[in-house]
Specification:
Layout (H helix, E strand, L loop, with lengths): L16 H8 L6 H9 L8 H9 L3 H6 L2 H4 L7 H18 L10 H8 L9 E7 L5 E9 L9 H11 L3 E7 L9 H17 L2 E9 L2 E4 L8
Helix pairs in contact: 2-3, 8-9
GO molecular function: metal ion binding; metallopeptidase activity
Protein name: DNA repair protein RadC
InterPro entries: MPN, RadC_JAB, UPF0758, UPF0758_CS, UPF0758_N
């Protein structure tokens, strides 16, 4: 529904998004009205419906893929509203694919599932915890590093596995500068995690390095026993 009003205050009370939702349910609202409800208020010089409309012109796919820092540059968006958008998109993904229903049976599965977790400016280490059927129990961002280094003690990776009684662990991190080939530090780190998993009875399913060029699987490359 497009409004001829200059601001939301000019819209009759019964037609305002929150009132419509209260009386008729969320299904009666347009996308821009739903987003306006989430935002709660507009920004300086822009009412909330106009802001929501302008944001949605980007398209949901771009809003999902764009970096958070870029999202904050859209007119009318600051840190809070950009965070609301990213949180909304992530919640919708989790509702569509709840934990426990997603299986990771290949590096490609892990790549599709985890690629949204990585920053293109810093190395990020993520751990994925699996049950015996390789269904996802939990995903955790373990550490955030610099542009070319990230470090975590294996204990930080294994602690959630113990708490969850997980069967296996898949670790992944990114190389923002492009080359997914493992460094000497990557190889040593993977060896330490593998030994720790063996001691505690967990399977290290894989270590995957993400980059703008694609990904590299330690398992596929024969770098894991």
């Amino acid at each position: 529904m497009r409004y001829r009003y200059r601001s939301i205050k000019e819209i009759p009370q019964e037609y305002r998004p929150r009132e419509k939702l209260r009386k008729h349910g969320a299904q009666s609202l347009s996308d821009e009205e739903l987003l306006a409800v989430i935002f709660g208020a507009g920004s300086q010089g822009m009412d909330v419906l106009t802001l929501a409309r302008n944001v949605l012109k980007q398209g949901w796919k771009r809003l999902e893929e764009v970096e958070f820092s870029e999202l904050t540059k859209l007119k009318g968006l600051g840190l809070v509203k950009a965070a609301q958008i990213k949180a909304l998109i992530e919640l919708s993904k989790r509702i569509r694919e709840p934990m426990g229903s997603v299986q990771v049976l290949s590096p490609e599965d892990a790549y599709r599932l985890l690629r949204g977790y990585f920053d293109n400016r810093k190395e990020v280490l993520v751990a994925l915890y699996l049950d015996v059927s390789h269904r996802v129990r939990h995903i955790e961002t373990v550490a955030i590093g610099s542009v070319n280094r990230v470090y975590a003690d294996p204990k930080e990776i294994l602690r959630p596995a113990v708490e969850l009684s997980a069967y296996g662990i898949l670790v992944a991190h990114n190389h923002p500068q492009g080359n997914p080939e493992p460094s000497k530090e990557d190889l040593l780190f993977t060896e330490r995690v593998s030994k720790a998993c063996e001691i505690l009875g967990f399977e290290l399913v894989d270590h995957i390095i993400f980059s703008p060029e694609g990904y590299l699987s330690f398992r596929e490359k024969g770098l894991l026993d």
